[in-house]
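tool_call: predict_structure(chain=1)
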Amino acid sequence: MDALHTHFQNIHSLIQQGKTRALAAATAYSLESYWNVGAYLSQRLNEKTYNKKVVPQLAEWLQRQEPGLKGFDRRSLYRMREFFEHWESMDWSIAELDKNKNIKLSIDVYEEEKIVGLATPQLPPVPLVLTRIT
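tool_result:
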């Protein structure tokens, strides 16, 4: 029975590891979303495409589009902008990371190659070290 109990503990450990990795990936994707929203708002507000009244309107619009959406109110949107502006100028080359442990933030999709114009601005990628923030 002790051997069987050890196997059960091993399986439980595998489940816990999977849950931990799933949570880390979900956190990384959420953080990437906050980074991208912050970058977009920063670019638009800095180039005066938007004025400060647009952010509260955006928060209200998002709530109408997706009732119950949490974390995208006016205050949070401004915090996303601050988050981006604070961390985007950092020299990330000094951060030594084990490249094998980085969470992949993109999914490889092979489609027909096309050149298209984008309606959204090109946003700088989120530094992988930030994906480790809890």
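agent: Residues 27 and 92 are 20 Å apart (CA to CA). Proceeding to next step.
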